[in-house]
Amino acid sequence: MVSPSDHPEPSPELTLREIPGTYGVPFFGPIKDRYDYFYNQGKDEFFKTRIQKYNSTVFRTNMPPGPFISSNPRVVAVLDSKSFTILFDNSKVEKKNILDGTYMPKLNFFGGYRVCAFLDTDESNHHALKSFFLTFISNSHKKFIPYMRTGLTELFENLENEISDNGSADFNKHSDNMAFDFVFRLVTGTRPAETQLKSKGPATVNTWLALQLAPLGTSGLKFIPSFVDDIIHTVRLPFFVIKSGYKKLYNAVYNSASSLLDEAEKSGIAREEACHNLVFLAAFNAFGGMKVLFPSLIKWISTGGVTLHRRLAEEIRSVVKTEGDVTFSTLEKMPLTKSAVYEALRIEPPVPFQYATAREDIIINSHDSAFKIKKGETIFGYQPFATKDPKVFENPDEFVADRFVGEGEKLLKYVYWSNARETDNPSADNKQCPAKDLVVLCCRLMLVELFLRYDTFTAETGQVALGASVKITSLTKAT
Ligand code: HEM
Questions:
Q1: Which is nearest to 283 in space by CA: 177, 349, 201, 173?
Q2: Global pTM?
Q3: CA gyration radius for the chain?
């Protein structure tokens, strides 16, 4: 175990080591790695066995999809808490067109624009759009708690109804609906049901997301043979399937977000470009993130069982009783609740892959060696390995709800879910999620609402394409 202060200080004493690993022969090497990654080993095993084989958390490998979608699947993988941080150093790495890794979806998915998340910090458009988003988020802060609490009340009522009708409730479905409503309302001021989208928003966005992200996953259907499933890694899925759905989404945002679009125009961003960016922000960044994170949070809290639930309920109810209401400052007074949220973000970071390109020849350090990455090489980080690094976190694979309480707070700088350290702040000059604090707030509110209403709950969990699936099997009302 390193002490929390041991890294990321430079370690000049580390010896320079050749980066181990091989890309194999062209064409066949990437396909072999792809089969190992998706079918023969699975992703965690893929990385684990290579770390052991090379005795290194930094090595060369191909990353999917490879042929024929990405022309260059070669990466240097960084898989420990220390080397991973090179991905956040915008002076040394470029983040252009690399959000999804070694391929980029066709621009028609985004109205023909390279939207903010695909822009590098050196591009002037990135600065303009990110500033616009940061201002919008900061100006909306009074809406966060009321909108989220309304959504959560509906969510829990829906879950209760479904449990009483069917014996269990699909958390993911109701959570998606809540997330979409919340985000759409934040951006436009209107509920999606009041627009021509009606209740179709989440389904439209899910299809739009699946078409873009298909090369990074599998169908998950056991009865489909690997070579058939592998077709989705070989050819891009076409945009036309969702063209009219995207147009409806765009129009709904365009017609309802007038004042925000006026602001964008005042700051020099063309109205259409701003609107496609808002659609991406709402549908990909926000909805896509929440879609993965909320079920994951509930999954991990469910594993804590009655003991954790009692501790959370006690903390939450006593603070709310003393403070009289749920406010930003009330939420700050709940150390266990805060820590449990950070722990969920640590143990299962909702966006697990990060990529960047070296702007110049750079030296990076793992815990035990230094490595030279050449200008233009792609660097890839699989975040769960960085935030479950046994040299930084004790019992890294265990969900320890109070890990970040008291002295444990010092470990927050090793929590990277927002594409930077939890102790850093998003700005127009970096690539950190501009909604970092909002996301943490939403998770805290979810736990507060849950344990104000219920003493405990049970869930069955599984896996779907983008993360955890959660079926709530019981909710025990607060006594
Ligand atoms: C659970 C929810 C969320 C998660 C897990 C999440 C995660 C992330 C991550 C990891 C990135 C960096 C991606 C990369 O470059 O590799 C990012 C970027 C971004 N996120 Fe979030 N996010 C969430 C919610 C939101 C929300 C609610 C908004 C807006 C209201 C938002 C807006 C953005 C934008 C605009 C970027 C691009 C930043 C840039 O290019 O500099 N995100 N987010």
A1: 201
A2: 0.96
A3: 22
Q: Please, what is the average pLDDT of the chain?
A: 96
Render pLDDT for 425-477 as a digit per residue (tens, 0 to 9): 999 999 999 999 999 999 999 999 999 999 999 999 999 888 999 999 999 99
Amino acid at 99: L
Strands 93-94 and 58-62: unpaired
Please report the sign of the dihedral spanned by the C-alpha atoms of residue 196, residue 202, residue 205, residue 211.
negative
Give the residue whose CA is nearest to atom 19 of ligand 1: 433
The pLDDT tens digits for 58-78 are 999 999 999 999 999 999 999
Which residues, 6 or more positions from 415, have their beta carbon under 8 angstroms from its beta carbon?
342, 345, 346, 387, 404, 421, 422
Distance CA 299, CA 268 (A): 43
The residues spanned by each domain of the chain are 28-477
The rounded Å distance from CA 417 to ligand 1 centre is: 10
Q: Is the dihedral of CA 220, 224, 225, 228 positive or negative?
A: negative
Q: Concatenated DSSP letters for 260-290?
A: HHHHHHHTT--HHHHHHHHHHIIIIIIIIHH
Whether residue 103 contacts residue 118, with contact meaning beta carbons closer than 8 Å, is answered with: no
Which ligand 1 atom sits closest to the C-alpha of 133?
Answer: 35
Stretch 350-370: mean pLDDT: 98
- Annotated binding-site residue? 433: yes
CATH number of 28-477: 1.10.630.10
Closest of 78, 77, 125, 76 to residue 97, by C-alpha: 125
User: Residue 300 has which token pair?
Assistant: 């991990």
Q: What whole-number distance in Å separates Cα of residue 106 and Cα of residue 130?
A: 22
Question: Could you tell me whether strands 370-373 and 362-365 are parallel, antiparallel, or unpaired per DSSP bridges?
Answer: antiparallel
Q: How far apart are the first and last CA of the chain?
A: 42
Q: Which atom of ligand 1 has the smallest separation from the CA of 116? A: 40
Q: What CA–CA distance (Å, rounded) separates 473 from 166?
A: 10
- Which residue carries 């960085």 as its tokens? 386
Q: Which is nearest to 233 in space by CA: 254, 209, 213, 263?
A: 213
User: What number of other Cβ atoms are within 10 A of residue 122's Cβ?
Assistant: 14
171-188 vs 141-166: helix crossing angle, rounded to 10 = 150
Helix, strand, coil tally for the chain in percent (to 5): 55, 10, 35
- Kindly list the protein residues whose Cβ atom lies closer than 6 A to any atom of ligand 1: 95, 99, 116-117, 130, 133, 137, 281, 285-286, 289-290, 293, 350-351, 354, 418-419, 431, 433-435, 438-439
